[in-house]
Write a structure and sequence with these properties.
296 residues; alpha+beta; SH3 type barrels; 7-stranded antiparallel beta sheet; 3-stranded antiparallel beta sheet; globular
């Protein structure tokens, strides 16, 4: 692929495959070549093709979010629809292009097209064993409600790459959905160990530490520490992690802080349905009631 000729502050995105509208805040762009995400805090993260990124800023480069928040080389990304077309052409030219199948599967998963994601990842795995493909396919099976197929994929993903943080994290969530909280905690902790700068891994453990129905797994102090780090890594701008910090503070008995952070999370949340659920939790915190949850 030819390199991009890009000025993200201009009106056009000029690449070796065409000319596109420049990305705007809120747009989704997709990596089409391996790229490095340089976060504001923490270690750089290597992104493979198919990573879907939300544009946060086009000032001084391209600032994006994919759990982590950081800057990425605009030459590595395309608008979502153009990336799909680009990858489809690659596969048409070479049906054995495993990387393109994987990237297409990741995009389909991002769009919640689970059957399509599984089909694309199946094609990738026919060509070679791949830990990332296994972990994303396992995530798709989990969302479809097939925990056993999900577990099998996560187990194999971890066997192939013990440092695959996504596989550890979502296998942990699958254990939580099976109400095996001890194994969930162990997997979340390993996800944090192998990928310490990933706020998603921290947030998963926060929920278990702060909101588990079984008291022996709750630890408000550790939950606050984990949630604070997740928020620091994302500049206190991600409503999901702010809500986690609120829940952690409620478990720790600091309800004024719980109310503060939940209100901030609501302020930053755009979806009306999500706001309504978060408002209910805010009222519980005002009544000095900690939050409890179960997993699916």
């Amino acid at each position: 692929m030819k390199p991009f000729l890009v000025s993200v502050s201009s009106l056009l995105f000029m690449t070796g495959t065409g000319v596109f509208a420049a990305p705007k805040v809120g747009d989704v762009v997709v990596t089409v070549i391996p790229a490095e995400l340089k976060p504001t805090k923490g270690e750089p993260a290597r992104l493979t093709p198919g990573a879907c990124l939300t544009v946060l800023s086009t000032n001084d480069g391209l600032t994006v979010a994919t759990g982590r928040v950081g800057k990425i080389d605009p030459a590595a990304v395309m608008p979502l629809t153009e990336a799909i077309a680009h990858l489809t052409k690659q596969i048409d030219a070479d049906p054995k292009d495993a990387a393109a199948w994987l990237a297409k599967g990741k995009i389909a998963f991002h769009q919640n097209l689970l059957d399509k994601a599984i089909a694309d990842l199946d094609e990738n795995l026919k060509l070679a064993a791949n830990s990332e493909a296994r972990s994303v396919r396992g995530f798709a099976w989990k969302r479809k409600g097939d925990k056993e197929k999900a577990m099998a994929d996560f187990d194999e993903a971890i066997r192939l790459d013990p440092k695959n943080g996504l596989a550890w994290r979502v296998r942990g969530a699958t254990w939580a959905a099976k109400a095996d909280y001890g194994k969930a905690m162990a997997d979340y902790t390993e996800a944090i160990r192998v990928d310490a700068g990933n706020p998603d891994a921290l947030h998963h453990r926060v929920n278990l530490l702060a909101a588990c129905t079984e008291a022996k797994y709750r630890d408000g102090k550790q939950a606050v520490a984990d949630a604070t780090k997740a928020c620091e890594l994302t500049g206190y701008e991600n409503p999901l992690y702010l809500a986690g910090l609120a829940t952690a503070n409620a478990e720790a008995g600091d309800f004024p802080s719980a109310v503060k952070w939940q209100a901030k999370a609501i302020e930053l949340t755009k979806a009306a349905q999500s706001k309504a659920a978060m408002q209910t939790r805010l009222e519980e915190f005002k009544d000095k009631k900690p939050f409890r949850m179960t997993w699916k």
